[in-house]
């Protein structure tokens, strides 16, 4: 059920710290432990030091004991169906599988569902590192 994840992402967006871009983003992960982990973007006066909503949620998941992303919802106040940026795609892929669902939302709910394989085809993978 994606509606609860949408609502969680929307609530997370309310915690965004985005005074520079004024572009609040929220993310909510349902993890393999059944819990929902939240994230919002956290900006910095030294602009490159800020980070996106998705890694906040991933950090919360890891520290909360979750290890796998079952599904993830992303929402941005000013952009319907805001797609995770390139770096975030790789970060999500680290904890996801090709069939992990990614929900892109607008202000009323989930508007687009993608698999990780659709969102990030040909992702960086190698056995050399492990
Ligand atoms: N942002 C995210 O939080 N996630 C994305 O996937 C795209 C961009 C944030 C970063 C920055 O705080 C603001 O949106 C404008 O780029």
From TrEMBL:
InterPro entries per UniProt: APOBEC/CMP_deaminase_Zn-bd, CMP_dCMP_dom, Cyt/Deoxycyt_deaminase, Cyt_deam_tetra, Cytidine_deaminase-like
Supply the SUPFAM superfamilies for this chain: Cytidine deaminase-like
Residue span, CMP/dCMP-type deaminase domain: 1-127
Q: Which reaction does it catalyse?
A: cytidine + H2O + H(+) = uridine + NH4(+); 2'-deoxycytidine + H2O + H(+) = 2'-deoxyuridine + NH4(+)
| One CC-aspect GO term | cytosol
Which UniProt keyword terms apply here? Hydrolase, Metal-binding, Zinc
The keyword Hydrolase appears for this protein: yes
Family per similarity comment: Belongs to the cytidine and deoxycytidylate deaminase family.
PROSITE patterns from the UniProt entry: CYT_DCMP_DEAMINASES_1, CYT_DCMP_DEAMINASES_2
Q: Which Pfam families match?
A: dCMP_cyt_deam_1 (PF00383)
Cofactor dependence is on: Zn(2+)
Q: Which CDD domains match?
A: cytidine_deaminase
Q: EC top class, in one word?
A: hydrolase
The lineage's top-level taxon is: Bacteria
Describe the task this protein carries out. Answer: This enzyme scavenges exogenous and endogenous cytidine and 2'-deoxycytidine for UMP synthesis.
> Which residues make up the binding site for Zn(2+)?
52, 85, 88
Q: What PANTHER family does its record include?
A: CYTIDINE DEAMINASE (PTHR11644)
UniProt-listed GO biological process terms: nucleobase-containing small molecule metabolic process; pyrimidine-containing compound metabolic process
The positions flagged as active site in the entry are: 54 (proton donor)
Q: What is the designated name of this protein?
A: Cytidine deaminase
Molecular-function GO terms, alphabetical: cytidine deaminase activity; identical protein binding; zinc ion binding
Record EC number? 3.5.4.5
